[in-house]
């Protein structure tokens, strides 16, 4: 039997609703959204928002009402903005004030903490955790079981938009079981190999091999990951 | 073991412009030798390469004597 708790001030424009949902005050869920069972949409959150395209933007974005899906038992906290064409898996938590732009796929049991911004064309694997105030730029691939600490920022364009959003614009690729320390900066196009650890405050300018500890500006390999720090 | 361990520790300390002449049992790796988490990771790997034991595998240790115990137990 369908049991849905929708606050009086919430606006629900979709009929693709699972069982046992909770949608709190002032939340907006647009008609291009599917909410699976046991989803919670927190106060003031907006789900399925279509991006606003203007001539100020250097790339084309779809303003169609593409489907956004929120998987079973996933919680969107307060003031969360989820755009169109986003697929969020089961058992995820998206923290207060986080914003996930269009064309993003997020796996199961992913934790996105508060004030995290995720740009378009991003993939995030299962069990990955992204802590407060981090920024995931456009065209980024993040594997499974990755840990991204607070205040990590990434870039995807060495030309500052001069040549538009062409194929050279690409963010980092972060492989499975990577751990990234507080305040790390990751520059465009780099690949961080499976199981590696990036020390706090590092600036990653070049590819990082698997299972090493890297640090500094520019980040260099300091040592391999000792047995007790391995996560797989 | 003691001499080799002293050499390993000094490889790491030398990068920070430091050196020790002897291993003092109750020296703290962090407080007395000033090692940070990256130094400790390097120390662990170098000891692992030499003695095939991860000194932090069973939990956090901090003194030279604890490191010696781990290394000696690993050699048994």
Overview of this structure, please?
The complex is a heterodimer of chains A (232) and B (76). Chain A has strands at 4-6, 11-12, 21-23, 28-29, 33-35, 40-41, 46-49, 68-70, 75-76, 81-83, 86-88, 93-94, 99-100, 104-106, 111-112, 117-118, 122-124, 129-130, 135-136, 140-142, 147-148, 153-154, 173-174, 179-180, 185-186, 191-192, 197-198, 203-204, 212-215, 220-224. By secondary structure, chain A is mainly beta. In chain A, β29 (212-215) and β30 (220-224) form a beta hairpin. Chain A is globular and about 55 Å long. The model of chain A has no long low-confidence stretch (mean pLDDT 94). With 76 residues, chain B is mainly α. Chain B has helices at 2-15, 37-51, 64-75. Chain B is globular, with a radius of gyration of 11 Å. At the A-B interface, β30 of A face α2 of B.
Topology of helices and strands:
The complex is a heterodimer of chains A (232) and B (76).
Chain A: E1 4-6, E2 11-12, E3 21-23, E4 28-29, E5 33-35, E6 40-41, E7 46-49, E8 68-70, E9 75-76, E10 81-83, E11 86-88, E12 93-94, E13 99-100, E14 104-106, E15 111-112, E16 117-118, E17 122-124, E18 129-130, E19 135-136, E20 140-142, E21 147-148, E22 153-154, E23 173-174, E24 179-180, E25 185-186, E26 191-192, E27 197-198, E28 203-204, E29 212-215, E30 220-224
Parallel strand pairs in A: 1-3, 2-4, 3-6, 4-7, 5-8, 6-9, 7-10, 8-11, 9-12, 10-13, 11-14, 12-15, 13-16, 14-17, 15-18, 16-19, 17-20, 18-21, 20-23, 21-24, 22-25, 23-26, 24-27, 25-28, 27-29
Antiparallel strand pairs in A: 29-30
Chain B: H1 2-15, H2 37-51, H3 64-75
């Amino acid at each position: 039997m369908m049991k849905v708790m929708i606050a009086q001030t919430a606006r629900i424009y979709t009929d693709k609703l699972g069982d046992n949902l909770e949608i709190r005050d002032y939340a907006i869920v647009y008609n291009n959204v599917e909410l699976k069972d046991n989803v919670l949409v927190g106060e003031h959150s907006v789900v399925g928002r279509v991006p606003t395209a203007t001539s100020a933007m250097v790339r084309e974005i779809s303003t169609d009402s593409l489907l956004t899906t929120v998987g079973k038992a996933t919680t969107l906290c307060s003031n969360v903005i989820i755009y169109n064409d986003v697929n969020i898996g089961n058992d995820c938590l998206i923290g207060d004030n986080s914003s996930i732009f269009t064309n993003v796929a997020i796996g199961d049991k992913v934790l996105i903490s508060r004030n995290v911004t995720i740009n378009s064309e991003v993939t995030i694997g299962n069990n990955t955790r992204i802590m407060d105030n981090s920024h995931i730029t456009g065209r980024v691939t993040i594997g499974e079981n990755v840990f991204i600490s607070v205040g990590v920022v990434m870039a995807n364009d060495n030309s500052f938009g001069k040549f538009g959003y062409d194929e050279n614009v690409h963010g980092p690729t972060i492989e499975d079981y990577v751990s990234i320390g507080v305040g790390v900066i990751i520059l465009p196009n780099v690949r961080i190999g499976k199981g590696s650890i990036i020390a706090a405050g590092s600036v990653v300018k070049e590819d990082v091999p698997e299972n090493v500890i890297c640090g500094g500006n520019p980040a260099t390999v300091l040592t391999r990951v000792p047995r007790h720090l391995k996560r797989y | 073991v003691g001499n080799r361990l002293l050499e390993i520790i000094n490889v790491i300390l030398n990068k920070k412009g430091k050196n020790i002449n002897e291993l003092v049992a109750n020296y703290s790796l962090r407080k007395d030798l000033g090692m940070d988490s990256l130094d400790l990771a390097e120390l662990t790997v170098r000891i692992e390469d030499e003695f095939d034991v991860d000194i932090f595998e069973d939990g956090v240790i901090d003194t030279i004597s604890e490191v010696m115990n781990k290394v000696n137990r690993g050699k048994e």
